[in-house]
Amino acid sequence: MLKKINVIGGGLLLALTAPATAQEGSSAAAQANNPLANMTAFNIQDYYIGELTESDDSANQAWLRFAKPFSVGDSNWIMRASLPINTFPTPPRGEKETGVGDLNMFAAYLIDTGNPAVSFGIGPQITAPTAGKDELGSEKWSAGFANVLFNANSPKLQYGYLLTWQESFAGDDARDDVNMAAFQPFAMYQLGGGKYLRSAPIWVFDLEDGDYSMPLGIGIGQVIKKDKTVYNVFVEPQFSVADEGPGQPEWQIFLGFNMQFLD
Question: Range of 230's domain?
Answer without folding.
Answer: 2-261
